[in-house]
Design a protein that fits this description.
Largest sheet: none
Distance between the termini: 25 Å
Oligomer: single chain
Mean pLDDT: 83
Helix content: 25-40%
Shape: flat
Number of helices: 1
């Protein structure tokens, strides 16, 4: 994943659009009081809870 800010000219080329890779993603945040960050974290957690378990996951 490359944010638009890192590829402003849209010069990246997708080599194989049919290819995908399942991978485990982690959400890490600093412990600080920030209503905005809490909202984002809550949204990420809610979205993650709707996904099926990761294949090969022991959890």
């Amino acid at each position: 994943m490359v944010p638009d800010q890192q590829d402003r000219e849209h010069s990246l080329v997708e080599l194989d659009p049919a290819w995908s890779e399942d991978l485990r993603l982690y959400w890490q945040v600093w412990t600080l009081e920030s209503p905005g960050l809490t909202e984002v974290t809550d949204a990420v957690v809610r979205a993650a809870q709707t996904l099926p378990p990761h294949r090969g996951s022991a959890v």
